Input
Amino acid sequence: MEVEYQEEYIANSRGVQLFTCKWLPLLSPRALVFLCHGYGMECSDFMRGCGTRLASYGYAVIGIDYEGHGRSKGSRCYIQKFDNIINDCSNFFKSVCGKEEYRDKKRFMYGESMGGAVALLIHKKDPAFWHGAVLVAPMCKISEKVKPHPVVVNILTKIEEVIPKWKIVPTKDVIDAAFKDPVKREEIRSNRLIYQDKPRLKTALEMLRTSMNLEDSLGEVTLPFFVLHGEADIVTDPEVSKALYERAGSEDKTIKLYPGMWHGLTSGEPDDNIEIVFSDIIAWLDKRCGAADRVISAQPIRLPGPAIRNFVPLSSSETREKRQKQKRSNYFCLLIGVFGFSFLIQYESSNGRRCPSLFVGKMLIVLLSILAKNEEEEFSTGPLSVLMMSVKNNTQVLINCRNNKKLLGRVRAFDRHCNMVLENVREMWTEVPKTGKGKKKAQPVNKDRFISKMFLRGDSVIIVLRNPK
Output
C-alpha cells in the first residue's frame, strides 16, 4: 500500500516551534496512531520505519518531536518540566483528532522507552479519550539496578536550579546498549538529529521524578495496552513491564517478552526479529479495529552478511574522538563545579545562612567519583572493553581500516587511542586485475596474507568488531 508523508511546524503554548510529521494511507485510515519517541530520539528519521510500516497497513501515523528534540526548536534535549512534553503532545494529538475526517476514528498511542511514560501520562490527563496504547520497552518504573542512591539525588536536587543545563550526569553509551544489530547501530549513531551527549542535570532529574511518580500510580492505568519488552534489555528492566502489567487497572492488557532481544525491538534487532515484533503490534491493533482476520505479510529486507552479523562493533573513529572530547570536558566541569560551589558558599553566607561545608565536600566527592567511574567504565563496559576482552581471553577481532583492508587477528596490547599491537593477523583486501585496452573488465579478486606481528596506528582504524565465538 502506498503511503503519503507530510511535515509541518506548529507553535506550542510557550511559542516554541515544534516539528510534526504524518504517514498517511491513500485511503481513509482504519485508526489513528500517535507516536511518542524516546529520550534524545526523533520521529522523522528514527521512527520512519515504524510510521511507514503501520501506514502501509491502513493506519494514519502522526508524530511530534518534543521541545529540544530532533527538528523542534529549543535548548538541545533540555527538559525543564516533563509536564511541558505531556501538554504539548496532548494538545497536538487532540487537535488532529478534532479534524472532521478523523472524528470517528479510534485513537491509539505508540510509545517507545521514555515515550511509553509520555503515553501513559497523556492517558492520565484524559482517561476516557484513548482507545489503547502500544508500549515498547516503556520507562514507567526505574529499575533497582540503576536507581541512584537517595543521598545523590538529594545533592543534585539542591543544585539543579543553579546549573540546570550542565551535562554532568554520567551515563553509559545508550546506543551501544540498546541496539543489537551492528549495522543498524552505526546507522542510528550517524543520525545527527539524535542527541548523543550526556544528559543535562535538570533533564535527568525530571526523568527520574517522572518515573518514580508513575511507578507509584501504575494502578491508575485503565486504558487497553500492549506492552512489549526484550528479555535481554539492559536499558529498561523487563521487570518494569511486568510491574505495569500486574499493577495496571486495565481490563484489556497484554504483555509479551522476547527472549534474547534488546531494548530497540523495532529498530535495532535483526530484520527477522523486527518482523516478528511488528506482526504482533499490527495484530493487536487489528483486533481492536475489527480486522483480526487480516493476513500480515511484509517485504523481505536484505540482511548483512553472516560474517559481519556475528561481530559486535567497538566504535567508529568519529565516536572515539567524541568520547575523548567528552573526557577532557569532564575535568573542565570539575573546575567549573568547584568555582560554582564557592559561589554558593559566598551567596549563602551573604544572606546570613550557615556555610554548607559538608554539602560542598560531598559534592566534590561525587564529582571526583564520577570522573573515576568514567575512566573505569571506558575499559570495563565502554568501547575499549572489546579490546580489553580480546587481550584477556586471547580472542579475535576484525578491524576495518581506512585503506579498505580488513585485519583479523588477536590484540596483544593497546592504548586509549586505539594504537594496537596485533599477532597472527590475516590481512584481507579486494583487487581488480588490470586488463589490456579494449578488453572486458576483470572480476574483483579477493586476496589475503598472513602477518605474524604488526603495529597498527589508531587513526587508521574505522571500526573494530569482536568475534563472539
Summary: DSSP finds 13 helices and 14 strands in the chain. The CA atoms of residues 311 and 467 lie 5 Å apart. The radius of gyration is 25 Å.
